[in-house]
Amino acid sequence: MAKTINKVKEIDVAAVEGNKTLAAAVDRRAVERCKEAIEKLGVVHTPIVGVAKNGNRLLLSGQCGLTALRELGVKKMGAIEVDATSGAGSRAKLSLLLLSLQEKPGALCEGLLLQEAVGAGVPRPEIQAMLGKSASWVSNRLALAVRLDANVYEMVRSGLLEPRSAVEVARLPQAAQFAFAETAVREGLPKSAVELLVAGYNDKDCPDAVKAQMLKEPRDALKRMADRRQTAKAGRAGRRNAVSPLGFIDEAVKSLKLQMAALRQAFSAMSPQEAGAHMNAIKELELNLSETLETIQGIVSLGKRGCGHGAR
């Protein structure tokens, strides 16, 4: 027999408390898209609201939709109400269940939800089982939430900094995060620029002066980094176009042959008495030079055959 399950109720939009953790995954563009969808189609994804013992309603899923409804001036909305009177641990488990149903809530939001669950006493193995994720995945997301400076998180929650950019900012040393995030917001830096600057700042060879410039004048720092990359690229191209190692070996072989010829000529010009005094040493030197020459010629021959094979 077919079953119909419908737990949607009409409630006051103003009566629902927004979820600060979920707000970390919401950016301005997402809210605008949501508003456009609501105006054309209505509420596509039904919000889920937890009802506490005192009757307060806390949003558990659908922060973007709730924000859009408030900005559109909507007074009533359909929502699924669930019991949230069993304590923080029960609510955290429900949040994880909802998290597991979302495709891409964002790494920062995932880390913050996991942090809440761990803080509420939910064991990590249970978290892994609920989400179908590995221990390393859970650890990485938790590390992201822990690394992010509290002031930077507030910037995300208030909508000043995009969550994706905040994930990159979290890779910086905590002492530099807030100053960098403030500058990134002031300059309107896209996520791609933030990513480049963070990678440059974390480079162990990055001079302190350049790091300071990244925090105060990020666009100038980006230009400086681009110039350095261009110079390095030109240097690599120059080295590729320079004389090949085989060419140097060819020159060495020619020089060695000339030196051996000069040695023979000098030896022939000596008197028998002079030659006799150096005979053994000269013969040993000539033997060593001949063996070295044969070895070098063999290397050159192999190298040329290898280059020829690669060209084909």
Task: Note down, in words, how this protein is organized.
- The protein is an alpha/beta fold.
- It has 3 domains: 8-147, Conserved hypothetical protein from pyrococcus furiosus pfu- 392566-001, ParB domain (Alpha-Beta Complex); 158-239, no CATH class; 245-311.
- The protein is built from 15 helices and 5 strands.
- The chain has helices at 20-23, 28-41, 63-71, 88-101, 107-119, 124-131, 135-147, 150-157, 163-169, 174-187, 191-202, 208-216, 218-241, 245-269, 272-311; strands at 8-12, 16-17, 48-51, 57-61, 76-83.
- The chain has a 5-stranded mixed beta sheet with strand order 1-5-3-4-2.
- β3 and β4 form a beta hairpin.
- α2 crosses α3 and α12 crosses α13 (218-241).
- The model has no long low-confidence stretch (mean pLDDT 78).
